[in-house]
Design a protein that fits this description.
Blueprint lengths: L1 E5 L2 H21 L4 E5 L6 H14 L6 E5 L1 E4 L9 H8 L11 E2 L10 H14 L5 E4 L21 E4 L2 H7 L12 E4 L2 H5 L3 E6 L5 H9 L17 E6 L10
Parallel strand pairs: 1-10, 2-3, 2-6, 3-5, 6-9, 9-10
Antiparallel strand pairs: 4-8, 7-8
Bound molecules: fructose -6-phosphate.
Length: about 250
């Protein structure tokens, strides 16, 4: 894994947006679609701001971009301000020229009897468009990626999951109390994520320092799902100095 450390999250986010912009511009030139795997949460917000700037100021077009989001709470209506559907439209999609038909976000309203089939089709759709070119990831305090909570298998596919207590606690602030945080979600699987051609995992701040250390250098184990990234051939870890503060890099 390549570890990239920046003075602050803004510089780290610019690095990530520049990488995405470069791949996108090159593929746009030869009219090839670019497939992006996207995350929500606090971590990628500045990256999305930078991408919007590139669209507005540098003419970078997203017309040929297809996106797949990592996860969505379940049950969850897209119009709900807590939904990841809402988050993505507020923070990125409404401000760029992406085609709505190219946006894929797990459906938090799918009927429970249809979830298994729906999740299979989500993975099939990713394969059908040629696989994810660049996957953006944040990391949970418990080492989750997407909503692959501790215990998630290396070979897991997109599926319905029960959220970890820690994850629900972390979300309780935005939901105004843990009792309002959904207990379940639909998430891309570890296997789905690891099939991406390139992965950028981002972490900012001291509260991520310990889990970053464990996930980059600890034993590979399903109790810390992000450790599975160690086996991927093309991962860029993007950290600010605080998130990198416990790494021994000599
Ligand atoms: C969000 C997601 C999660 C977050 C993680 C970190 O789509 O998949 O894995 O990336 O929980 O969240 P933040 O960025 O809010 O610290």
């Amino acid at each position: 894994m390549n570890i990239n450390i920046f003075e602050n999250s803004s510089l780290g986010s610019q690095f990530v947006a520049n990488r995405i912009g470069k791949v996108l511009a090159a593929r746009n030139l030869v009219s090839k679609p670019t497939v992006l795997g996207l995350a929500t949460g606090s971590t990628p917000i500045e990256v999305y701001d930078e991408l919007i700037k590139k669209y507005r100021n540098e003419g970078l077009s997203f017309k040929n971009v297809v996106t797949f989001n990592l996860d969505e709470y379940y049950p969850m209506e897209p119009s709900d301000v807590q939904s990841y559907y809402y988050f993505m439209h507020q923070n990125l999609f409404n401000a760029i020229d992406i085609q709505p038909s190219n946006v894929f976000i797990p459906n938090g309203e799918i009927h429970e009897h249809k979830i298994i089939k729906y999740c299979e089709q989500y993975d099939d759709k990713i394969a059908e468009v040629g696989g994810i070119d660049i996957q953006i990831l944040g990391i949970g305090a418990n080492g989750h990626i997407g909503f692959n909570e501790p215990g998630s298998e290396r070979k897991s596919a997109t599926r319905f999951v029960t959220l970890d207590e820690q994850t629900r606690k972390d979300a309780s602030y935005t939901f105004n109390g843990i009792e309002n945080v959904p207990e379940s979600a639909i998430t891309m699987g570890i296997d789905t994520i690891l099939k991406a051609k390139e992965i950028l995992i981002l972490a900012w701040g001291k509260r991520k320092a310990e889990i970053i250390k464990q996930c980059l250098f600890g034993e590979v184990t399903s109790t810390k799902p992000a450790t599975f990234l160690q086996a991927h051939p093309n991962v860029n870890v993007v950290l600010d100095v605080e998130a990198a503060s416990l790494l021994d890099l000599d």
